[in-house]
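QUALITY CONTROL LOG
STEP: pairwise intake check
CHECKER ROLE: data steward
CRITERIA: each record must contain a sequence immediately followed by its structure tokens, with no blank fields

ENTRY 1 OF 2
RESULT FIELD BELOW
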Amino acid sequence: MAFFAAARQGRKDDAELGSGVWRRAHDRFRRGLDRYHQILEGVDDDAVYNELTELANELVQLLPRVRTVCVAAQSQSPSEGLDIPGALLQVHRALSRAGNALATTAEAAAMARLDGERWGIASAGLDNVRRRAGVVAEDVAEAERLLGATSN
């Protein structure tokens, strides 16, 4: 059953996102979320787990926004290859920064988990995760703003 759902989603993604840079930006963000959630699976400290889960919920709410930007960008400047359409270069750059920031957020979450396990203190690491998650949200908002500016 899950196989067919994945195939349907893949066809929908192909239709809406194409197979170029907008699809890659969206998929990279989704993989970053998956990585972050994988880190949650190994957290033993309840306080750390609860804080990281709250941040995970905030980050996952960004995925539909990233998808909206990528679908609109594909509609405005279709991409089927690796070339970034010049008119939306800054939008792609903001999405790339969001994906990078999400990857470093997952790394920071892993470090907070290790600090909590090793030293019994994770508050400094959690501050770092919060700060990095904020950067992800800022980058997504910037992509939205830039896309809106190009469509006017």
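ENTRY 2 OF 2
RESULT FIELD BELOW
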Amino acid sequence: MDAQDGVWRATWKGASRRARDLGRSAADLILPPLAHDSREATAAAGLTPDAWSRIAFLEAPVCDGCGAAFEYDGGAFAQDRCAACLAQPYGFHRARAACVYDDASRGLILRYKHGDQQQFAPLFARWIGRAAADLLGEADVIAPVPLHPFRLLSRRFNQAAEIARPLARTAGLDYVPDALVRIVRTDSQGGKSRRGRRLNVKKAFAVTEAGRRRIKGRRILLVDDVLTTGATGEACARALVDAGARAVDLAVIARVKNARQLII
């Protein structure tokens, strides 16, 4: 393909994308999209104003290591990590969460994760794209936390993958859904202490041979739905780093407010 042909293809793709966006905007004017959380017409953001007002989005300053919100901005000389991350760093290098996992966000996430409501995926991808913009700027690859095949069969989709795919596409990054696999069918993490969660997933993940070639020497942005104790993210990150990844960061829809305060 010569240079002129390449320019023509790029111009055609750009025009096609603009036409598609214009058509979508026109359709939204005629038939406004419905909110994901009600039958009420809403803006393209996807939630009713009441739902938006109740979501506790995490804004800077946040801890660079776990994504938890600092209570106040300490200024230019403040530490960029909370005391817990300084004392006991996670296995992943950095983390970002779009919002706090609480009564307002929990229902939306559970409807997506267990209610087969995949229309939430693009919305959550936009949330993470905003919260983890700095991590995306340094990432080479985006990978979702995998499900065990049996759980994938029962749930029918991997909630992390459905967010990671559009996130990678928008950011123009390599998407590697099959680099990491879950080789152990673990129990649910729900109800377990921090130590119990870590033991539950300690050897649950492995990197495929094909995945090893695609991640070697590259910085990975790992995508999951919720950060509770960080045990799953840590187990995945250690497997990826052991397989040759340069570093692993974590991005999630939501995180519990006090992950480090869960029972040890």
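INTAKE CHECK: passed for both entries
DESCRIPTIVE NOTE, ENTRY 2: The chain is about 45% helix and 15% strand.
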